[in-house]
Amino acid sequence: MAAVNGTGEQVTGTRVAANADLHREWQNLRTSRMLCDVELRGAEAQSTGIPCHRSVLSVHSGYFRIMFLSGMKESTETAVQLRNISHIVLSELIDYCYVGDVLLTDNNVQSLLTAASFLDIGAVVESCWTFMESRTDVQNCLMVYCFADSDAHKNAALARKAKALVLQGFVSVSQQPEFLALSNEKVIDIIRSDDIQVPGEDQVLLAVKGWLQHNPMQRRCKFWEILQCVRPSYLSPQGIKDYLLACINALKYYAGGDGLLHQSDDLQVLPGSDAEPLSSRSVARKSYGIENITVCAGGHSETSWISQVDSVDGVNPRTSRWRKLARLPYRVANSGLAVINNELFLCGGIIGCGDSRVTPRTIRYNRTLTCWTDMAPMQTGQGNHSAAAIAGHIYAVGGYGSDTRTLATVERYDVTTNQWTYVASLPTPLEKFAIVEGAVAPSPP
Asked: Where do the domains of the chain lie, and which CATH numbers do they carry?
């Protein structure tokens, strides 16, 4: 091997690398207390001192390097106590500094990672994260997620992986003791996700009720906030009853809850009621297995153009199979039909045998209960109009009103407030026309 010395002369020789024998010598010096210049103690009051060398600790730990070289009082003391690290964990990390390895297990990896992060022993920190990622599964994913997502550690990649497992195995995870120990913030963080894998929303309600019962005295004041993340539109009939009862009980302990209860009218303003404004909680979770279908609702019978029907049929374009949906609550034809957030809305239409029998009624299809629910009516009863879902709203355009006069009105339905409002009218009254969402280029100046 050739090298060049400081004078520019070529020097031939062999470079010798340190090996395991050197680590053993360092360890022998420590165990025999030879040249040791500091003694470390763990958090326990009666912790036994661990003899060490400042130079060895400074090489491996940024924390000790600063402590011993910055003129702190610990730099001259013969004994230093670390009050936030246990004796066992401290001993394992000091052994690492001398022998170059440490045994990681499911039982010690989190405490070792916490202490190694504090002492700035980067190699151990990295090894602990790698070990935790390799061992993360449905049984421990909730614990790993909380640890990796905490402000003290923050491993975003591992937190995402662990949370995905939590959502995927939510039914079993929610039955683990770790779930019952979660903070209300973490419960909300989990159950608000669209990605929870559950056969139905009842499992989510059951999980949060179990969480409450684990410590009701301390948790009941926050339970109302958690119930806001349950999606009542997808609860079973019994689940809705349990949910409304839980809401009533939660409002008793929630700040401002008395006011909400006094404003209620037979529970009609509580979440889950028909009068509740639609929101993201009205969106189905991805695991519900909802299929996209083309729907035909109402219309005239084949025997008479003045006779309306209440049938609703849907076809799956992928399978080309038709199936019956719940019948409309009334016979209607020439109504508007639109979909927002996977929710089906039918608005207006003609009822009875006279053209003047138009209705402003708006109904929504509840897939869970397989029934239709009344929503806020339109401002004007109309039939032979067109409806479309555009940019998160439903627009009902034109048609004719109760006096059979062709309309130029345009109404917009806001799903978040459950309200119809007038917007800019048509330049020309129209009926029996087509409408579709589209994009056009602006007109030239």
From this structure: 18-135 (3.30.710.10), 169-289 (1.25.40.420), 291-423 (2.120.10.80)
